[in-house]
Request: fold
Amino acid sequence: MPTDTSNVAFVRTETLPEKAPPASETGIVKWLRENLFAGWANSLLTLLAIWAIYIILSSILPWLFGGLWTTSSLSECREILQGRVGGCFSVLTERWNQLLYGFKYPNDQYWRPNLALVLLFFAAAPVLFFDLPRKLLIFTGLYPFLAFWLIWGGAIAVPIVALLGVVAGYVVFDRLGKQTFAGGFFGGIAAAILVWVLGMALIPETASENALLESVPSRDLGGFMLNLMLGVTCVSLSLPIGIALALGRQSNMPLIKWICVVFIEFIRGVPLITLLFVASVMLSYFFPPESTVDLFLRVVIMITVFSAAYIAEVIRGGLAALPKGQYEAADSLGLDYPQAMQLIILPQALKISIPGIVNVAVGLFKDTTLVSVISMFDLVGMIRGPILASTEWNGVYWELLGFAAALFFVVCYGISQYSQWLERRLATDHR
Amino acid sequence: MVKYQGVTGIHMTTLTDPPKETFRLSMLINDTRYRSLTFQAIAAIILALSFWYLLNNLFQNLAAAGLNISYSFFGESAGYDINQRLIEYDSQSSHGRAAVVGILNTLLVAFLACITATIFGVVAGVLRLSNNWLVSKLMAFYVEIFRNIPVLIWIIIIFTIMTAVLPAPRAFRGDEPAASMLFGSAAFTNRGVYIPGPWFSRPLFDVAVLNWLLVLAFLVGSFFGARALGRWATKVQEATGDRPVTWYFSLGIWLVPFLALMVIMGLSWEYPALKGFNFSGGIKIGGPLIALWFALSIYTGAFIAENVRAGIQAINKGQTEAAASLGLRPGRVMNLVVLPQALRVIIPPLISQYLNITKNSSLAIAVGYADITATLGGITLNQTGRAIECVLLLMLFYLTISLLISAFMNVYNSSIKLKER
Reply:
């Protein structure tokens, strides 16, 4: 039907340009209306939240920015402040070394734990980030021995013998393990023990006296260094034990299954503090009468046992989450149990368990503060013990506790952010 | 053709000539039928050997130190005082009674902290999902701050507030005191918090505990009465389609017997008052208890908030929309559709958080709250030197609690398991 436009006054031939939306439906106003002031209840909540933020900030900020960093005692600090609000952060600068290394670690040797910490980042990097070249893992394998030597010092032969034992065990496992896993496994352990016993017998008693690095006994370790050492050591030791316990709990051999179940449930049923009591007052009764196992090692044993039980439960969850078809597929390929576990089951189960494992690691790192209860001088122990008891700094609570809290927050929050990144990175199901 | 014959040949031989079942020693390792037995035998031997080794060391060490394993110290007089206690106790009482005081204190702080942690957690978890940007960010901040800092540091921080920031009782003295009581009835001092305590002027029993048990019995009775009322209302609703309005009746069931009992027994309040250097009267809640209670609550509350958030988010949005399309109002959508499904996700981790609270309450020893760890594992251990006995009993106590809680959780999990056909 042709349209006759000659007798129509006006016909628009093109569309009008879009008008801007009303001011209340655009930009920051719309965002504010939707997210902060949607309805009276919501507005009330917003006002409450603003009030809460104001209270928090108005009490913290003046204290934080009005603080003093250079005085030498609390009384001097209070004198300079003269009633003004401000923190005496000079306790942090003055006692910095004590907070980080404890009060007994030799002052001129601080570079050793520092170097160990820097190297830790290099050693951990290939484990944490898969994109890095795999050859770096060799350094990760060397790191425990290097760190031991750096922190404790003494005869360099001790970590070298320990390393040689591990290498010997690995070589034997590599050779024999190709035929039977069990043969390689037990053969490797036997070889390692043989090398250790022989090597320790060969090290002369006087080796530690004129060593390259001055020997530092375990009881001299302290401060945040102790927390970090306990956390890193116990988590890395408990991973293999946890995997073994989880596999044992899934096993169809009743005896092995029940050993693992009883162990896991017992450890998970008691608080860490009772296990630390075991370490401090009870464990030495179970060692041979003439041996003296130092407190640090006893604590490491108990914390490792503790976190292994929790990691085992996390990994069991990962194993249970795998579809049965994966186990059957491995069987139908003709793989035996160790092969199926190594190649098919564990890579998938561990991937599922990563968030849980990181949770356990963060929890464990926080729990290392409990060693202050059995009078080890970790960060909290240092604060509550030598520093708050000193005449100069008796009464400086908030600066010290705030510092400890901030230190733990940074580390723990960092680890959990890494875990979230890793989860995204490993997500192979495209949803 | 050749291949085919070959295969048949093998087939024939296996049919006609079955391998002899002779037992060779190598079958213990190579034959899957025997291998598991071998491994278990090895495990049993290793286990037995290590137990023998450890126990042997233990007895040698004990003999060398002139000790033995004995629990007779439980009857001996403890000789130390406990400020915070639920039952009668003095320094002449036995170590066994001190342990019981400790157990009750552990249960008390765990119970209180479970309740408040749930409240904090649910509020923070729900608010974190709020549409309000500021509030949800604030709650995320709360969760991250409290989850990532050790609970021991929180306990110490709050204990420091209780002891170093709150005024001493003498600040309440004088005509123009530096500190004043909240509503004229509760005093927050650095020696503890004093609140008014209820007591009965016309008690029905001579023993105070029995009176309170009577109150509890009335409340339990009201609970069952209210539940029966609700069932009756549901029955009426199913028969007629209309639900009778029962809330005022239900309120009556709760209040009337309770208030009547209170009037009969003559409920009165005893207010704390400054006498000498300290407050007396009312109920005293010690600083350590409050520090532990509050720190455990906010710390665990942050974890519970995450559980609650995960539980609510686990419910498919389609469920809410389906319920809305059936014509349910938002409140009923929450009550009838979302919450029953979300609770199924929330409650198991919630119960393990309760277990964590109970275990973390052992940190009482850091602030001097007399729980079981501080009495049995602390002072009693140090006074008697019976390390092995004390630590074993301590572990046994916590183990019993956690096994009870996990048993309860298993029962609960199987009762809420999806009934699938």
